[in-house]
Amino acid sequence: MTTALSAIEKRKKEHLALCAKKDVSFHDKTTLLECVELNYKCLPELDMREIDLSTEFLGKKFSFPFMASAITGGAQIAKQVNLDIAKACQEEGIGMGLGSIRAMLKQPSLMDTYYVRDVAPDIFLAGNIGAAQLKEYVPAQLEEALLALEVDALAVHLNAAQESVQPEGDADFSGLIALIANLADKIKIPVYVKEVGHGIGFDVAFALKQTNVAAIDVQGAGGTSWVAVDALRHKETYGEAFREIGVPTAVSIIETKTVLQSTGKKIIGSGGIRNGLDAVKALTLGADMTAAAMPVLKAQQKNGALGVKEFFGEMKKQMIITSFLSGCKDINELHEEKPLLLGKLREWVGK
């Protein structure tokens, strides 16, 4: 047992170090957000100071539609990362996701590496568990851990590509839709499903539509490739061959929106979101919320909570400028925009 627990914490440390210091991005595949052209209005008929991008997501208020996606937890080195991000989220009025709580479930003493309510009592906070781990833990066990962390929702992450190239990976993904459906029915807080950077396409979105999950976080391809992360972590792996696999973020949002429209289920547009322009494009394609992880981690590594807060401030300012140049005063008007789809994106969604 001790060896297994040490291996989990070691893996968490390695993941953090690789993401912070190495090139783990997609090389050829992009988010295809560069193929989304917004309707630039040189006469927006707006006072930019009056633009209000505040919104509500899964019962919590956000000052603007952006959150820090799940990054880490389960290793002592992760504790300060989570605290810094949570403090900045509290100050900026946005939300965050925690890393997978699998390590905490195996070793309860690691709970403090996830707990952030002392510095962020008001923010939207999501717990996180891998879909494959739903075979190990029943809903009641998960709910007990989530209650201790005082989270508002649980994200179930899908990482088939990553698990398939890990020598120690769990690639038994059979029967997971039924387990996700059962979890969403049994626990009291909202459950949503997220990829980890390789995207969710039409078929998976359609399968999840039949469940009571509250949202889908597409986390599309084009940003960080978790296959690439594990290709670096293991010298002998198929990771490099599958580095580029996945559904680009723009495609993921469009296909998921097509499936979920009129259901009331929400969409988080994430995966390679690097600035406010990217985020607003995601909103115009149908996302209700946007998110990012890598730039948040890099801001934290550079200058702690202050660095994260500065990044959030820049993201908000860029989203406001983009909204202004699109002639939109709030998120509702952004959702009414009809962006022009070009090139490869147009070909992909028109297939």
Describe the structure using short key phrases:
single chain; 351 residues; alpha/beta; TIM Barrel; eight-stranded parallel β-barrel; 13 helices
Would you write up a description of this structure?
α2 packs parallel to α11 and α7 packs parallel to α9. The strands form 3 sheets. This protein has an 8-stranded parallel β-barrel, surrounded by 5 helices. Helix content is 44%, strand content 13%. β2 and β3 (60-62) form a beta hairpin. The longest helix has 32 residues, at 294-325. The relative contact order is 0.18. The chain has 351 residues and is an alpha/beta fold. The radius of gyration is 19 Å and the shape is globular. The protein has 13 helices and 12 strands.
CATH superfamily: Aldolase class I
Q: Give the CATH architecture.
A: Alpha-Beta Barrel
Alpha plus pi helix count: 13
C-alpha Rg (nearest Å): 19 Å
Could you write a compact summary of the structure shown?
By secondary structure, this protein is an alpha/beta fold.
Task: List the topology elements.
Layout: H1 2-21, E1 36-37, E2 55-57, E3 60-62, E4 66-68, H2 76-92, E5 95-97, H3 102-106, E6 125-130, H4 139-149, E7 153-158, H5 160-165, H6 176-186, E8 191-195, H7 202-209, E9 215-217, H8 226-233, H9 249-260, E10 266-270, H10 276-285, E11 289-292, H11 294-325, H12 331-336, E12 340-341, H13 343-349
Parallel strand pairs: 4-5, 4-11, 5-6, 6-7, 7-8, 8-9, 9-10, 10-11
Antiparallel strand pairs: 1-12, 2-3
Helix pairs in contact: 1-8, 2-11, 7-9, 10-11
